[in-house]
From TrEMBL:
Residues 269-282 have a biased composition (Low complexity). SMART domains: Ku78. Residues 269-324 are annotated as: Disordered. CDD domains: KU_like. It comes from the Bacteria. With LigD forms a non-homologous end joining (NHEJ) DNA repair enzyme, which repairs dsDNA breaks with reduced fidelity. Binds linear dsDNA with 5'- and 3'- overhangs but not closed circular dsDNA nor ssDNA. Recruits and stimulates the ligase activity of LigD. Belongs to the prokaryotic Ku family. This is Non-homologous end joining protein Ku.
């Protein structure tokens, strides 16, 4: 069963080719119809934000206190456990299971969702791959298959393209909106044979090969040209740092790093000859001082011994007798 019709106008404009101008409006052609879970407080059943904050109390919620609930009615939830959700996941078979072959034009454009290139795996798969691709191309058929990608089951169409195959994921039928209620022309709106002939002639005159490289996003290109022009003209402005990330103010004098290195090398070269003798002298002086310090006790002992010997070698004077 198709999804309900969306009558809301998303875009209003026209289709134009040659001198033909057809006003049109755009409406959503698809509807997301997947299971969407809300995070809830396990105890109070209040909603928990994406940042795991209880929206009622504003308090952060521990991960173990958060459960997944599916809203069946307004503010009415059914809670599913991780094991229950895991058990419902489709089993990955790593297989693109073709269930039917249908005419390529039988699948409406609104069903196509996301394409993937398909490539044969190894040398052994080259021939069967080529056989399937050629068969689909000759018969004008596509393979309708089921495939599980990232634990999610998809409906898909296997389509031949050039020398390969494309697996285009399809939308499920309940994701495609109904067209009932849209102001499409009915059978009562007819066109004359002359009008149809002129329209066909115009289409044939504008017919050509599909060359996507010929089409560009002109708006983006013009903006990029403007950006580059302003950049060349010095129109680049420095973004102010965020609080706490202030950058020290640059000096008014711009100094070349190469010049600083050159000055440093010259200064070191000039100071090296004079500094070397001083360093040697200082080292020699330190060695002399250390030697003097080590010899000091010996000198003192020798001095004491010398003094004792000198005193011992000097005989005391003999007192003279007085005559008389």
């Amino acid at each position: 069963m198709p999804a309900p019709t969306s009558s809301r106008t998303l875009w209003k404009g026209a289709i134009s080719f040659g001198l033909v101008h057809i006003p049109v409006t755009l409406h959503s052609a698809t509807a997301e119809n997947r299971m969407k879970f809300n995070l809830l407080n396990k105890s109070t059943m209040t909603r928990v934000g994406n940042q795991q904050v209880d929206k009622s109390s504003g308090e952060a919620m521990p991960r173990e206190e958060i459960v997944k609930g599916f809203e069946v009615e307004k503010d009415q939830f059914v809670v599913l456990t991780p094991d229950e959700i895991k058990a419902a996941l489709p089993k990955s078979t790593q297989t693109i299971s073709i269930e039917a072959f249908v005419d390529r034009d039988a699948v409406p454009a609104v069903f196509f969702h996301k394409p993937y290139y398909v490539s044969p795996g190894g040398k052994g798969g080259q021939k069967p791959f080529a056989l399937l691709r050629e068969t689909l191309a000759r018969t004008g058929k596509v393979g309708i298959a089921r495939v599980v990608i990232s634990t999610k089951q998809h409906l898909a169409a296997l389509i031949p393209q050039d020398q390969g195959l494309v697996l285009n994921l399809l939308r499920w039928s309940d994701e495609v909106r109904d067209v009932a209620g849209l102001a499409w022309p009915g059978e009562d709106v007819g066109v004359s044979a002359a009008e149809l002939k002129m329209a066909e002639q115009l289409v044939e005159a504008m017919a050509g090969e599909w060359q996507p490289d010929l089409f560009h996003d002109e708006f983006r290109e013009k903006l990029m040209e403007l950006v580059e022009q302003k950049q060349c003209e010095g129109g680049v402005r420095q973004v102010a740092p965020l609080p706490g990330e202030e950058v020290p103010a640059a000096s008014a004098e711009v100094i070349d790093l190469t010049e600083l290195l050159r000055r440093s090398l010259k200064g070191n070269a000039a100071a090296a000859p004079a500094a070397a003798p001083a360093a040697k002298k200082s080292a020699a002086a330190k060695r002399e001082e250390a030697a003097n310090d080590d010899a000091a006790p010996v000198r003192k002992a020798a001095a004491r011994k010398t003094g004792t010997t000198a005193r011992a070698s000097v005989k005391p004077a003999t007192p003279r007798r007085k005559n008389g």
